Amino acid sequence: MAAELGRVGVWSLKHLWDDNHERAAELEELGFGTLWLGGSPGGDLTQVDDILANTRALTVGTSILNIWTDTPATAAAAQHRIVDKFPDRFVLGVGAGHKEIIEPTTGQTYERPYSKLADYLDQLDVPKHDVAIAALGPKALKLATTTRGALPYLVTPEHTAQARETLGQGPLLAPEQHVLLETDPTRARELARQALGLYLGLPNYVRNWRRLGFTDDDVRGSDHLVDSLIAWGDEDTIKTRVEEHLAAGADHVAIQVVTPDGGLDFDQYRRLAAALL
């Protein structure tokens, strides 16, 4: 068996759930199938146990556990512990992270991340249907076919269509989608650009956007890029974007709610659940 994700889940930075394990039950009641913990959760993954213990059927996934900071043995031990206690409710998402973050924080030389990821998967003693990888480019997407599938981040429905073509019809494709319930264009783009600020300086995302046809001006944060990556507007507008991903071949879409302070906004989750679920 493999964990069921549902059509729509929630992507949220892990630290927002440190003291909110019980709030995950509200996401479950609203109908979201999966909670994805972003921001490189630590390898012991005790936070996952806490969230699963406070819910009945919600799936939890890591998006992503960083292969530079946690060994395959550490990740496998955590995964086995979790699935023994909570069968078919956990997906171990792993990925290579970013040179700009890895080298200053770990002291490791960030070389050949694709090879590092492939080697990590070879050493990871976890059933392949319980593992997915962060994948954007064609090589990483091909590698994802050796696991349950791919977890692309900050992508468009056009990327989803290309990813599905690369993956074929079997593997999981679960893109993340930033969303914002704000109908004023000026305010929406202000908040959206704030949310994108970090990523505009990360080359792997910029390269992926260029592959999708975005220009030099776009990748510096144009309105076109902002509008393409972050679905803002009313509930129907966001529903349309989610449905575009599903129509393009996604099995599951993980929405990330943009807020002014970067915190949790359960009012938006409730409104979006009513529209999407």
UniProtKB/TrEMBL annotation:
Q: Where is the Luciferase-like domain?
A: 17-122
Q: What is this protein called?
A: Putative F420-dependent oxidoreductase
Coiled-coil positions are none
Q: Which organism is it from?
A: Actinokineospora auranticolor
What NCBIfam families does its record include?
Answer: F420_MSMEG_4141
GO MF, any single term: oxidoreductase activity, acting on paired donors, with incorporation or reduction of molecular oxygen
Q: Which InterPro entries match?
A: F420-G6PD/mer, Lucif-like_OxRdatse_MSMEG_4141, Luciferase-like_dom, Luciferase-like_sf
Keywords assigned by UniProt, alphabetized: Oxidoreductase
What Pfam families does the record tag this protein with? Bac_luciferase (PF00296)
